[in-house]
Amino acid sequence: MVELETRELEYFIAVAEELHFGRAAVRLSIAQPALSKAIRRIEARLGVPLFVRSSRHVELTPAGKALQEHGRHALNAVSAAVRNARRAADAEDHLRLVLKPGGDAGLLSGILAEYAHQPDARRVDILFSGPADRSDFLRDGRADVGLLYAPFDDLDGLDHETLHVEDRVVIVPSGHRLAAHASARMSDLEGETLPRWKGVPGGDGTGPEVADAVQLLHMIRVGRMIGVLPRSLAEPVPDGVVCVPVTDAPPSRLVLAWNERDRRPLVASFVTAALRQRRHETRADLDAPEAPPGPQGERLPAEAAR
To answer: How far apart are CA 157 and CA 295, in angstroms?
Structure first.
């Protein structure tokens, strides 16, 4: 059986991602000749070429693409094993929760309060990440639980529970042609400039790259693009932009997710608290008083009716 050391896989993954031996060597803090020699040694051991090299270009072979895909999973698994072993030995372990900034639909404070009532509650460390890697935090052990948005985040290898379902809105500058519309359809957005999300390959965006909703809203306000987001990520609506419901966009689900192999009581206790808080929120919505009709027959907010 051909065996590769973890360090060798790290060398290969760095070159596969950079497609440049010089940049990969800088990233790994080793000399470029040593890196080139290590890659040749890996290829000799496997008996297949992993890269097509020229003086100006480095490209993965089919074998290289396969090793990149499975090698990254292997490194993540090793990293997760080390982190879980260290956490299992720590009697004062903390629970790590990952989410995007503002990506809790207003539910996090209630969930944390409910969790604090659990007899085995631990301190919760909150980690913020960009748009592309929250799922990886859960797969490789950097976080224990996470708040993710379906269908946008990758839930492969994760267990999850839906906490909140909401519609999606298109966010446009206040002078945009859709700003005065009561609603829009996806077909209304054809030809518009949409964002490219940092670290997220593919997608339909052709506009500038953005890392989070704050950057997106700024670019929309100055007229560089429009964006479609779950409603809670666009609220409160800042000056200079307008949110218009998109009636035929699939709904967004905020989910609490965790690694499907993680059966620790630490995680189960937090999931239980989140589901209990979800039930409280649902009952509160059902018990809210219905607003009386307004002057023109429309419903007023309950606060305004008091």
So the answer is: 52
Buried b / exposed e along 222-234 (16+ C-beta atoms within 10 A): eeebbbbbbbbbb
Measured between alpha carbons, how far is 51 from 59 in angstroms, rounded to an integer?
5
Calculate the dihedral angle through the C-alpha atoms of 74, 80, 86, 87, rounding to the nearest 10 degrees: -160
Q: Within a 10 A sphere around the Cβ of 139, how many other Cβ atoms?
A: 21
pLDDT digits 0-9 by tens, 87-101:
665 545 789 999 988
Closest CA to 15 of 76, 77, 57: 57
Q: Is the pTM of this model over 0.85?
A: no
Scan for tokens 């992993």, then name that residue. 50
Residue bearing tokens 């708040």: 147
What is the DSSP secondary-structure string of 67-114?
Answer: HHHHHHHHHHHHHHHHHHHHHHT-TTPPEEEEE-TTTTTT-HHHHHHH
Task: Note whether 60 and 48 are within 8 A (CB).
Answer: no
Sequence-distant (6+) residues with CB within 8 A of 224 are 193, 207, 208
pLDDT single digits (tens) 228-286: 999 888 888 889 999 999 999 989 999 999 999 998 999 999 999 999 998 877 666 55
